[in-house]
Amino acid sequence: MKPSPFLNTLRAARSKISYWALVPAVALMCSPAFAALPTMPTPGTDMNGNAVVAGDWLGSMSAWFKAGLVIFGLIILGFMFMKVVGGAVTKWGEYTKGRADIGDLKEYMIMAIVIVGFAILMITYAFQVIGQT
Question: Where do transmembrane segments lie in this chain (predicted)?
Fold first, then answer.
C-alpha cells in the first residue's frame, strides 16, 4: 500500500520545521563565551621561602613545583599504605587457610608498622625541609 501524498508532505514539513527550530540553539551554542576567568592563587611560598608577588611567573612556577612535590609525596604514602594493607589481608588469608603461622602474621604486621612509620617520618621531614627553604 502506497502512503498518501498528504502524509509525505506533512512528514517533509515536520522535518523542515524541526531543522529550523534547532537553528537558534545551534547558533547560541556556537557563539563564543566572553567570561572573565579568575586568576589562580599561588600555593604559598616559592622554593626559596619567599612570598610570590603578582606577576612573578618564575616564583609562581617554583611554588607550584613545591606543591607538586608535596602531592607526589602524599601519593607515595597512600600507595604504600594500600600495598601494606593488601599484604596484611593476604597474610591473614594465608593464616586462616593454615598456610601461615601466627608468628608469620605478627612478623608481617610489625614490619609493616615499622616501614610505614619510617616512610611517614621521612616524608614529613621532607615536607618540613621544603617548607623551610
Answer: 67-89, 110-130
